[in-house]
Each structure stands twice: as structure tokens, then as C-alpha cells.
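Chapter review: from sequence to fold.
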Amino acid sequence: MGKITYQLPSLVECHRQGWQMSFSSAAVVTILLAAVAVGLLSAINDIVNDGDFKETANPHVRNFLYIASFGAIILNASATVTFLLLIDELGDLPTLTSDLDKPEGGSLASLADTDILVYYGLGITWTWARWH
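The C-alpha cell string follows.
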């Protein structure tokens, strides 16, 4: 059973808040990029459906434009979802850590900031999802 009054060590809390703010900003940026990609897809669709362009354009170019547009939408939307999941996981860190018996003091200077968060309870999904 976790301790109700548990607080993360200040170094861990600082790293957690920093990553949480970074992921929040990144989620906003990626959803805006997905919205821009939707707008560009609409513009590309209008151009491609124009009779003159349809007759003269290389079909491979049209296919590339569609694939690039849909790819941008899908990749940006999935990145946004990943950032939201990571924000949720970071929010659960104090609860996860309250069940662990980790020292409050000591030197964690040799660990990278991401390794400190893993040491204090973030799972392996944290490492994989950050690279997404």
C-alpha cells in the first residue's frame, strides 16, 4: 500500500515536471501539424481533381502527394496520442513511487534524467514511447 503523504525527491520532481511540460508542448505542436496536413490534403485534393492537372500530371506524383499527406496526418496524430500517454504516465509517477522503497537522499548524479525517472518507477514503455 502506498504512502498517502509521499512526495518525490526534488530532483525527480523537477525532471518529471520538465518532461511533462515538454510533452505538453509537443502534443500541441503535433496536433497543429496534423491540422495543417489536413488543410494541405484538402488543397491537394482540389488541385488533383482539376481536369487540366489530372490529364497532364504524372500519376506517380499524385499518388506521392496523397501518401505524403495521409502519412503526415497519421504520424502527427499518433505522436500526439503518444505524448498524451506519456503525460499520463508521468502524472502517475508519485503514486508508483510511493509503493517503492527508494532512498530519499543519495547521489543520482551519475544517472541521466530519463534513467532517474525509470529508477523511480516509470516502466519500459516510457523508454520506447519517448523515441516514437
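Two observations follow directly from the output. Helices lie at 10-48, 51-56, 59-91, 93-98, 113-119, 124-131. The mean pLDDT is 82.
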